[in-house]
Amino acid sequence: MPFFRHHFADFRLISTRRHAPDRPHRRPPVPPRPPTSAREWTLKKKIKAVAAAGFDGIATRLTPTHRHLAEAAGLRHLLGFISSDDPAEFSALIREQKEAGAIYINVQMDNYDTPPAVATQHWLALVRAAEKIGGIVVSLEPHRDC
User: What pLDDT is stored for residue 142 in this prediction?
Assistant: First the structure.
């Protein structure tokens, strides 16, 4: 049976049940519709669903809105992301994620064709920037170039 028919049939069966005379007839709660590419959930709904599913944190490129909604939903752990190949941006990106609530930042460093010697210098510069800012842990996400 297609999803819509199945849901519709269940709804009709539930909503036509007899109720005790002292209790008013109430429709059953409608379950949240799953997101689709045409109808994405709001950020607020996504974060509430994460908390309702029993998770205690989120990982994304954080913004102040993420922090506010996560705190309201009771999520304790916020993990940020940075992706850059420009050492001049490192401090600002780290601060942005820290101010948005990150205690840990996943770093996708440079590009697929960056020479290892340059990538190493960039990583050391980013670690130094994080140490200057303080209160944040950065972690490199390596990838193989296949």
Answer: 84
